[in-house]
Structure formats: structure tokens, C-alpha cells
Design goal:
By secondary structure, the protein is an alpha/beta fold. Helices cover 39% and strands 14% of the residues.
Length: 371
């Protein structure tokens, strides 16, 4: 049996008629940049998260950079985030001209540790810290009550990196409602994925939403009237159409991911030295990734590969060890939880189209490895 890490073709076949029709309508109307399909998706995505505004952009990276830019973050400023994330979170800070300050993660949720956040705020009072970007990693929301309380006390903005957490909740409230903005990726492999690059920004701030709509379109308030210098961060019409169709299924796809996660936990808890994903009592985890930890990661990954089971590493090198950020001067041991997670974490297959037989096959082979 073959079990890939994801199966986008199977997903396409399950909604083929609707997808083909939606794409065809964009081609027929020739609204290839923004247009009705994008506007309709923006409204639906904002409504799904119970947020007032969605600004569709070209990628999750665009969403992060545009949010920082719109808030005036730039040279001389500092922004806090974790080193255990995809590099786009940190790149977005760097390309504004600001500098990054890293905070280690909670060992259970892999999200920003509020205690470490408080420590770095208290020890860097002379630095111009403008914002914090908590990452809702793997589909699990960060501890937003504590993060927002600390950020409010020090007067800094909160930007949610929700690129892996569509429809995730914290204390029964959807992500996207805790920061001044929340940034989403619609990369094809995400729980809600486009057929190419795409992203989105959610905000309840009407003035900021207006600014972001201009910023993504060269600072235009109307055609050929530019209020300020912006950039081209517009979403393609075809991506809006695809996302609009897929959004209608996201609730049931998320339920299936949660069911697969439940089955994994039921049958793999206590097996070998495996550490299962944790779901905080205040969280609704959407399991973009099902990430286990083991000191035998390489051996297990190779064994599963031999059995036709796909796995992946998210993420094998923390950002402070990346060549691009060597100039920060960090050393081994600076962020121990991120470092051990990078050494031990392994992502197992999880996607809505997985059959029960495929799930059982993964479970059986992992149990067999640890016998």
C-alpha cells in the first residue's frame, strides 16, 4: 500500500466538477487579477472566521510583509517571533528593514512561550520593539490571552501567523480575532489550498483594511490614483475561484483531519518513545500537520519509506541556525526547545482523503517498528 504525505489529486477528483466550472467562469469573464471570484472569496473567508475584513494577496509571505509594512514597521524597529517556524515568518520582518528577536517555544504546543516573551520584553526595554508574531504552528493556536496581555502592557502590535491554522480556535473564538491582523497562506498543500500561490489577511480594523487594499495594489485608491507607494500583492482570479469552492468543504475536511488525529493518538500513544501532538484545553487544533517526536526519527522515517509511507520534517533546521541568519550570532543552546524539536519532530500523513485502511496501515507499521 502507498500512503503519500498528501494527495492533492484525490482532493481535486472529489470536487472536480465544481472546480472546473469555477475556473472556466474566470476564463470566460477574463477577470484574471482580483475580480468577482476574489471579492466573493474574501467575504466568505472573513465570514468563516467571524472577522470583518479579508484582504486577498499573493501568498502567506505577502500577507506577513504587507501587515508589517502597513503598521509602519521598518529600519530601527524590532519584531519578536519564534525560531521554530517556516522562514517566511522571519523573512517578512527582515525585508521591512526591522530586526528579529527570537523567543523559544512551548514544548507541548510548539507555539511562542509567553513566559519567554515576557522575559525578552523586560530585558530589552531600550529597544524599539514594534510587534510580536505568534505562529499558530501545525494548526494549534498560540496562547493568545497571555500573549495579548503582555503585548498590551508594552504597547506593541500582535500579528497572528495563521498560515497553517485555517478555522483553528482559541477559547471558542476563531484565529484572526486576536491580533491587529492575521496572516494566512493558501499554498496548495495547506488545509485550504489554492492551485498556485495565494494568501490572505484578516483584520477587524477598518482603516487598516483600507490601507492594506491599497498597499496590495500599488497604493491605488482608484485606477491610476496612487495615495502612496505600495506593491503588487494581488490575488489571481483563478485562485479566488478555487479557494471559493474549497472553502465550502473546509469544515468537513477539518473534521476528517481531527478524526485521523484521534485514531493516531488512540493507537500510537505509549508506543516506543513517541510523543503525540498536544491539544490544549483552550484550543481547537485543525491538524494541518500531525507531528510526533522521537529520538529514532531517521530510522523510523527510513522504515516507513520502505513501506511506502510518506513523511516529512517540519522543520529540521531552526531559523537561528540557518545561514541566512548566522549574522545574529546565536549559538547552540540559545533556544533549546526549538532545537530539540528540530532534531526529533516527524510529520505523519494526514489529509481528508486518507482512507481508514491507509490510516491503519501507517499505525500498524509504526507499531511494528517499535516492537
Amino acid at each position: 500500500m502507498k500512503v503519500p504525505m498528501a494527495d492533492l489529486h484525490a482532493q481535486y477528483l472529489s470536487i472536480k466538477a465544481e472546480i472546473d466550472k469555477a475556473i472556466s467562469e474566470v476564463v470566460e469573464t477574463s477577470q484574471f487579477i482580483l475580480g468577482k471570484s476574489v471579492t466573493d472569496f474574501e467575504k466568505a473567508f472573513a465570514l468563516a472566521h467571524q472577522v470583518k475584513n479579508c484582504i486577498a494577496v499573493g501568498s502567506g509571505t505577502d500577507a506577513l510583509h504587507a501587515s508589517l509594512w502597513a503598521l509602519g514597521v521598518g529600519k530601527g524597529d524590532f519584531v519578536i517571533t519564534t525560531p521554530y517556524t517556516f522562514i517566511a515568518t522571519v523573512e517578512a520582518i527582515t525585508i521591512t528593514g526591522a530586526e528579529v528577536l527570537f523567543v523559544d517555544i512551548n514544548p507541548d504546543t510548539y507555539t511562542l512561550d509567553p513566559e519567554k516573551f515576557q522575559e525578552i520584553m523586560a530585558s530589552n526595554k531600550n529597544k524599539k520593539i514594534k510587534a510580536v508574531i505568534p505562529v499558530h504552528l501545525y494548526g494549534h493556536p498560540a496562547d493568545m490571552d497571555q500573549i495579548n496581555e503582555i503585548a498590551s502592557r508594552y504597547g506593541i502590535a500582535v500579528i497572528e501567523d495563521a498560515c497553517q491554522s485555517h478555522l483553528a480556535k482559541y477559547k471558542e473564538k476563531f484565529v484572526g480575532n486576536f491580533g491587529i491582523t492575521a496572516c494566512f497562506s493558501f499554498y496548495p498543500g495547506k488545509n485550504l489550498g489554492a492551485y498556485g500561490e495565494a494568501g490572505g489577511i484578516l483584520t477587524n480594523d477598518e482603516n487598516l483594511a483600507q490601507k492594506l487594499r491599497k498597499l496590495r495594489d500599488h497604493g491605488q485608491s482608484e485606477k491610476y490614483k496612487h495615495d502612496f507607494c505600495g506593491h503588487n500583492y494581488r490575488m489571481d482570479g483563478i485562485q479566488g475561484a478555487v479557494l471559493g469552492v474549497k472553502l465550502r468543504y473546509l469544515g468537513r475536511w477539518t473534521a476528517r483531519r481531527r478524526e485521523i488525529a484521534r485514531r493516531y493518538k488512540e493507537h500510537l500513544t505509549g508506543v516506543g518513545d513517541l510523543v503525540m501532538p498536544f491539544e490544549d484545553q483552550n484550543a481547537f487544533h485543525v491538524y494541518h500537520l500531525f507531528v510526533v517526536r522521537t529520538k529514532e526519527r531517521s530510522e523510523l522515517q527510513n522504515y516507513l519509506s520502505e513501506k511506502g509511507i510518506g513523511t516529512a520534517l517540519h522543520y529540521p533546521i531552526p531559523i537561528h541556525f540557518q545561514k541566512a541568519y548566522q549574522y545574529l550570532g546565536h549559538k547552540k543552546g540559545d533556544f533549546p526547545v526549538s532545537e530539540i524539536s528540530a532534531e526529533e519532530c516527524l510529520s505523519l500523513p494526514i489529509y481528508a482523503e486518507m482512507s481508514d485502511d491507509q490510516v491503519d496501515y501507517v499505525i500498524e507499521n509504526i507499531r511494528s517498528f517499535f516492537k
